[in-house]
Specification:
Blueprint lengths: L9 H13 L4 H12 L6 H12 L19 H13 L5 H7 L5 H11 L2 E4 L2 E4 L4 H7 L6
Antiparallel strand pairs: 1-2
Helix pairs in contact: 1-2, 1-3, 2-3
Length: 145
């Protein structure tokens, strides 16, 4: 009896399918061997047949193909508008931005402020993460105690 491999990557299993298919092993036999080595939950017989068919059609990449996923609400125009509102009032809150942009969720606004505009909260104020020398000298007078 062979040692069972518990944690296998999908691309590893697909590589084995590709290898055995190149040796002209039938899909049912490939599935039987996979179950013998990787366990019952490795891959269904139908999926093995699908991968054999794709290999026969010329597919060589065993990794997942990129998928589009859900489209992002955040775009450069929206980031520019949020940045403009922030520049108007540096003592902003996410709730204030939400009042200005009610069609955008607070979570997305927080993501824009922190990830895209690189601001962070400092003494209950949002400031740019990368401070210039001018910002640093000016911020010395704004220190919190």
């Amino acid at each position: 009896m062979f040692k069972t491999i518990a944690d296998s990557a999908d691309c590893e299993v697909r590589s084995v399918i590709r290898f055995l298919n190149a040796k002209k092993v039938k899909p049912a036999e490939i599935h039987r061997q996979l179950v013998e080595i990787y366990g019952e939950n490795v891959m269904t017989d139908g999926m093995v047949r699908k991968w054999v068919r794709q290999c026969n059609d010329g597919r060589t990449n065993v990794h997942d193909e990129a998928r589009s996923g859900r489209p992002s609400v955040v775009n450069d125009g929206l980031v520019a508008k949020v940045n403009e509102k922030i520049r108007e009032n540096r003592r902003f809150t996410i709730r204030m931005l939400f009042d200005e942009f009610p069609q955008i969720s607070k979570t997305v606004l927080h993501e824009i402020v922190t990830n895209r505009l690189n601001c962070r909260k400092l003494c209950s104020r949002w400031v740019p993460k990368m401070l210039t020398d001018v910002h640093k000298t000016r911020s010395d007078s704004w220190q919190c105690f």
